[in-house]
Amino acid sequence: QVQLVESGGGLVQAGGSLRLACVASGRTLSSLVVGWFRQDPGKEREFVGVITTKGDSTDYANSVKGRFTISRDNAKNTVYLQMNSLKPEDTAVYYCAAHPRGRSSYDYWGQGTQVTVSS
Hints:
By secondary structure, the chain is mainly β. It has no helices and 11 strands. The protein has strands at 3-7, 10-13, 18-25, 32-39, 46-51, 58-60, 68-73, 78-83, 92-100, 108-109, 113-118. The strands form 2 sheets. Strands 2, 4, 5, 6, 9, 10 and 11 form a 7-stranded mixed sheet that branches. A 4-stranded antiparallel sheet has the order 1-3-8-7, with no helix packed on it. A hairpin with a 7-residue loop joins strand 9 and strand 10 (108-109). It is globular, with a radius of gyration of 13 Å.
């Protein structure tokens, strides 16, 4: 069983930056593809981005491309989401999720961390 714990959320002004971390326990993160998602109350969950097991490839939603960067440190069992040039519309609860390579659905989810961007 894998447990994922996000941290790093908070309140930031528009134009500011935050870095979220997703720490895994129970299984080495290096064998898992990790994605980031977000959800604002009343809205559907939105894909933010994903990183491969080795970190050699990433993909992002158009809404965050060029502003957000996902990286990973497998030695620390941690994946990061660097968010720059934040906008009020980035306000949401951010979740990390993971699945073994070769699967298409996410098996493991964190509890989420709130990000609030003020205008």
